[in-house]
Amino acid sequence: MSTFDGGNLAPDVQELGERVLSLVTGVLRALELYELNNDTVQKLIGNLVDEVNSYAGVAGNNVALLTDDENIFLNEEFLRLERRAFEKVGRLRKMFGRLRVNEIAFYPGCTNESLTLFFERVHAGVRSPADRVKLGLPDDTMATLRFVPGLSKKGKTQEDKEGLALRLYATLVLLSRELLYQSTRQPFPPTVRLRRVLQRIVDLLDSHGDYVLALAHYAGNRDGLAGHLARSAVLAAALARTTGMEKRRIGRAALSVFVGHLPFARLGDSWSVATPERITKVYDEYMAMVLREGQFSGVSAWRLAMLHEAQAAAMKQKASYPGDLSTSFDGRLLAICTTYDRHCQGIGDATSASPAAAVASLAAQAKQLQGQEVCLWDWRIIAMFLRLTGPLPPGSLVRLEDGSYGVVRNRPEVVLIADHMGRAQAGLEGRDATEATPYNLPEELDIASALGWTEHPPEASDG
Question: Model-level pTM greater than 0.90?
Answer without folding.
Answer: no
